[in-house]
Amino acid sequence: MAVFRHSTDVMFQHCDPAGIVFYPRYFEMINEVVERFFGEAVGWSFRQMHTVERVGIPMGRIATDFHAASRLGDQLDWTLTTGRIGGASLDVTVAATCDGQARLTAQGTLVLVDLDRMKSIRWPDERRATLETYKED
Ligand SMILES: CC(C)(COP(=O)(O)OP(=O)(O)OC[C@H]1O[C@@H](n2cnc3c(N)ncnc32)[C@H](O)[C@@H]1OP(=O)(O)O)[C@@H](O)C(=O)NCCC(=O)NCCSC(=O)c1cc(O)c2ccccc2c1O
């Protein structure tokens, strides 16, 4: 099983007055991990998807556990693996650690859609095959 990895630094812009990462900022980081996964691992950049092919992958649902707080200067090491690949849906697990300490785990379902109709469409076979390689055992 392949695991997609990406690292981000916690910046001042991510932190609230309590000095910890505010959870909406985590959701933006999760979206960045998903965007990088599709661009770098699947070979299907959001630019290509959105501006050329007019498809997108909005999140249908997401459940997140926050295990420990993150602070300015922390390096977050992200992983993304895939789960069930349905007709149009894709389960993903996105997790972050810092120095080996778990910070968050999110389990989400992305849905491939035709952006002009905002209706789900089936994963193309070539993309499906790549997504399979990141599937959790
Ligand atoms: C996403 C929808 C358009 C789906 O509705 P539709 O009627 O077209 O599809 P079906 O109901 O037939 O379902 C197809 C398929 O998807 C599964 N599914 C549908 N809804 C959900 C759900 N809520 N949670 C989990 N799974 C769902 C369903 O079980 C089917 O599975 P199969 O395995 O059988 O294929 C419609 O639901 C919709 O419009 N929802 C709202 C989406 C939304 O606005 N989310 C807000 C947060 S996400 C977001 O902001 C976002 C926007 C983007 O443009 C992005 C672009 C790129 C990357 C990420 C983006 C992003 O996160």
TrEMBL record:
For this UniProt entry, the molecular function terms from Gene Ontology, in alphabetical order, are:
1,4-dihydroxy-2-naphthoyl-CoA thioesterase activity
Identify the CDD domains for this entry: 4HBT
The record's annotation in InterPro entries points to: HotDog_dom_sf
Official protein name in the record: 1,4-dihydroxy-2-naphthoyl-CoA hydrolase
Pfam families with a match to the protein in the record: 4HBT_2
Keywords for this protein: Hydrolase
Its Enzyme Commission number(s) read 3.1.2.28
Question: Where would one find coiled-coil regions in this protein?
Answer: none
